[in-house]
């Protein structure tokens, strides 16, 4: 899908392009290619003189491969954008290309974005740009607003994690934590920990991208100050993710501790039962001896006496343990 965005009266307007002729009718500041076909790439190359690299969305992590400037003046930025889905959170690699210098090409002043799937932050920017006149003035504003929206989206996701952890806290700190409940809690904690880690990685990537824009001297004074504000917001998000990691570790340790307590209770019952059965075992062992002169062998009530003695030797310790509270869960 190839979408172009034009600026009119301070608002961003979207057009979906289905042919090269339609592409030539507009003067966009942003061209968004979502899972572009070879034909759409050919349109962009033919009209704008821009060749989209085949490795535009590779998973390189080296800064030199993700943030660089070509000899013809094209700036290349590859950044990850968060998808905070409850079932399957992840991130989308987006490649940005911006020509700021080469006036001989129609691509000058146009931001190109290439990605494989829809990005929530992109939808958020489109919505805001239609409703807020003057929000965007050029392609660099689009790029800054996308990174700003990504930081805000990450902040909302962190608030969601905190809300979920509050629910988990109430479950963990309840009067009775069964093994089944503890298993559910551990699963939820693991999901929130995974999402928190993704957010931390995402904001780190956004910081690198914004820092590159500031170093490249492509921003005006006002845009430079906006970039600094984005970095300050990201710094606060870093602190919040660290706080959430500490909270997650605490809840994980508390839940595992309750599981250990439940296991210790079961082991305690078995230990008490084993100790209680030792006296009757001793009595049975004594009367299992085959000595010739044992007075009880000649008693008519010798067998009932031995059974009663074993029962008493078992009940007395059990009564004592119960009185001490050792048999209660």
Characterization of this structure:
The protein has a 7-stranded mixed sheet with strand order 2-1-3-7-6-5-4. Helix 5 runs antiparallel to helix 6 (179-215), helix 6 (179-215) packs antiparallel against helix 7 (221-276) and helix 7 (221-276) runs antiparallel to helix 9. It is α+β, with helices and mostly antiparallel strands and 329 residues long. It has 9 helices and 7 strands; from the N terminus they run E-E-H-E-H-H-E-E-E-E-H-H-H-H-H-H.
Topology:
Blueprint: E1 2-8, E2 11-17, H1 20-23, E3 30-34, H2 38-48, H3 63-66, E4 67-69, E5 74-83, E6 90-99, E7 111-115, H4 120-131, H5 139-172, H6 179-215, H7 221-276, H8 278-286, H9 302-324
Parallel strand pairs: 3-7
Antiparallel strand pairs: 1-2, 1-3, 4-5, 5-6, 6-7
Helix pairs in contact: 4-5, 5-6, 5-7, 6-7, 7-9, 8-9
Task: Write a concise synopsis of the structure shown.
The chain is α+β, with helices and mostly antiparallel strands and 329 residues long. It contains 9 helices and 7 strands, in the order ββαβααββββαααααα.
